[in-house]
Amino acid sequence: MLPHHAFQPSLSHPHGALTLVLLLLTNLSLVVATNPFTCYANDFVSPDHATGHYPSNLSGAQDIIVAWANEMASYGPWSVTNKPVVAPSGNKHDYMSWAPYQWPDCSKVGNKTKLSPQTMWKTCPYVFRDGQVNPDRTTINDFQSFFNLSDAVLYNSLAFTFQNQSSSVYSQRVVQYIRTWFLDSATSMNPNLKYAQMNRGPQGQTGEYTGILDLRGFAKIASGILILRQHNSSDWTSDIDSKMVAWSNKYIDWLQTASTAKQAASAKNNHGTFYVNQLMALKLIVNDTAGATALGRGYFGGIYKGQMQSNGNQPMEASRSRPYHYRNFNIAGMITNARLLKYADPTSNDWNTTSNGATIQTAVDFLMTTNPASTHETNVTAEIYPNVAAVAATYGDPQGKYVKFLNASGFPYADDASFLWDQPLAGGTLSANSNASPDDSQSHNGSSSSSAITVNRTVIWLLSGLLTGGWLW
Ligand SMILES: *[C@@H]1O[C@H](CO)[C@@H](O)[C@H](O)[C@H]1NC(C)=O
Ligand SMILES: *[C@@H]1O[C@H](CO)[C@@H](O)[C@H](O)[C@H]1NC(C)=O
Ligand SMILES: *[C@@H]1O[C@H](CO)[C@@H](O)[C@H](O)[C@H]1NC(C)=O
Ligand SMILES: *[C@@H]1O[C@H](CO)[C@@H](O)[C@H](O)[C@H]1NC(C)=O
Ligand SMILES: *[C@@H]1O[C@H](CO)[C@@H](O)[C@H](O)[C@H]1NC(C)=O
Ligand SMILES: *[C@@H]1O[C@H](CO)[C@@H](O)[C@H](O)[C@H]1NC(C)=O
Ligand SMILES: *[C@@H]1O[C@H](CO)[C@@H](O)[C@H](O)[C@H]1NC(C)=O
Ligand SMILES: *[C@@H]1O[C@H](CO)[C@@H](O)[C@H](O)[C@H]1NC(C)=O
Ligand SMILES: *[C@@H]1O[C@H](CO)[C@@H](O)[C@H](O)[C@H]1NC(C)=O
Ligand SMILES: *[C@@H]1O[C@H](CO)[C@@H](O)[C@H](O)[C@H]1NC(C)=O
Ligand SMILES: *[C@@H]1O[C@H](CO)[C@@H](O)[C@H](O)[C@H]1NC(C)=O
């Protein structure tokens, strides 16, 4: 069960009133994208898919990417130095987050009177309650900031390719976001996760291996950087490139040597999968293609082999409190690893590698016939759509089974961002753009009249609820 607090979008949210007014005033002229994701559990978009030239049947996906690029920009830039507290090191450049499923247990500390939160945080040992998110989790926003940063980098770098320019507001934003989070001396993050997913309580105050997962979005950031490089963005200068490579090398060193990072690396479930996502992405940023390839091969020849049963079930995810969610979550990590490896080594063929006879496709097929209600999971069905689209695009869909599933779901997948890179996949174009001419990429920069599109903020809220509630570990 997701905590109730995660799903209370309210009109007191400043954007809520704004959206309502916008919808009332401009209902006729505004095309509202009804559902697309702002935040995939993870993904890697090869720069080879961001060609800059897209057929007109991708214009719905292009429009929503531009809309998300602009929407995310309203929250940035982001920095670990923005948080209202400082990590136990006393260094405001240290990343920090609270563990989501850890709760104070004051039953054994002889509390006779009601303890103040401050006393509770210091004296009560913390215990694990899987799937129950402690609301303290959201009082420090570093993890949300990083999720938003990685989405902003991905969508803005893609939007940059929609225009045939060496510089645009989109590429400038990507550079500003990367400078602020990683490079500027006043705001930069130290290259470690020593305080990620800390517990409170007397035995806490250092990060846990589970916190390594907080930065899986590096796969999206690597996508953005590789896209700017490949498109010769004049904003992505050799100076910023070499500084980002230097930062990444230091962080790679930490990820390969710190004890919590090594624990994440040896985890056999989604933690191990996402560790590989993150480290492969960093290796691509520093142009260590051989290192990325070795990691990807290590994953598909290693823990992947133990993650599935022959029918595509994933026992280590199925045993968690929210099995439908966790299976989809790990599949997103598998897909990201397969995509990163294909980019690092185009001769690789790991979408076909089996785990007890099953492939990524078998895992998705299994979930397509699994009803999340049978495990009392609500608001999670949407998690399968990007996985289905990726499988259909990669393995093909000769019987139309995947398109039928997506179409029947009511999810307008062809107007979802991932439709741009999950190709080929049958599907349409947002009706507002149906008169767009083929290869009309120049018009998709968010300001032309055919791009009179806005994002459905109800869905942002829903998904940010998922962010705080579920997409954690
Ligand atoms: C936004 O999405 C929500 C949830 O999918 C849906 O109920 C609502 O109708 C959408 N709003 C608009 C204006 O399309
Ligand atoms: C002791 O702490 C627990 C929280 O773990 C709390 O529920 C309980 O009310 C406390 N007891 C008293 C007497 O305050
Ligand atoms: C991140 O984006 C979500 C919308 O997707 C927003 O609700 C949240 O406030 C943002 N948080 C930060 C720290 O940028
Ligand atoms: C992109 O711009 C260059 C000049 O800057 C021009 O030569 C080229 O034809 C343009 N490409 C397209 C597809 O418009
Ligand atoms: C980027 O520059 C390289 C080398 O100058 C060139 O080969 C390539 O075509 C350029 N790419 C784009 C998208 O303009
Ligand atoms: C990346 O490494 C390859 C060799 O693996 C080399 O050919 C290429 O020039 C390098 N690219 C950059 C941008 O350093
Ligand atoms: C699921 O989402 C809807 C809004 O789309 C909300 O009304 C409902 O309370 C949510 N259910 C749970 C269990 O959070
Ligand atoms: C799986 O392997 C077969 C045979 O080599 C190949 O034709 C097919 O493209 C591969 N599928 C994927 C998804 O890589
Ligand atoms: C989208 O357009 C491309 C290029 O025109 C075409 O090859 C492809 O079949 C189209 N896809 C669909 C689903 O219509
Ligand atoms: C999706 O379903 C609609 C009817 O609901 C149908 O008109 C359309 O052709 C279907 N699209 C695909 C790609 O199957
Ligand atoms: C979008 O493109 C139009 C026409 O090509 C241009 O005038 C406008 O400045 C662009 N807007 C952005 C935000 O780049």
TrEMBL record:
GO molecular function: lyase activity
Protein name from the UniProt record: Chondroitin AC/alginate lyase
Low complexity composition bias: residue spans: 437-450
Residue ranges occupied by any Alginate lyase domain in the UniProt entry: 79-369
GO cellular component, one term: periplasmic space
Swiss-Prot/TrEMBL keywords: Lyase, Signal
Pfam families to which the protein is assigned, alphabetical: Alginate_lyase
Keyword Signal recorded: yes
Source organism (scientific name): Mycena albidolilacea
UniProt region (Disordered), positions on chain: 431-450
Signal peptide: 1-33
Presence of keyword Lyase: yes
Gene3D superfamilies the record matches: Chondroitin AC/alginate lyase
Phylogenetic placement of the source organism: Eukaryota, Fungi, Dikarya, Basidiomycota, Agaricomycotina
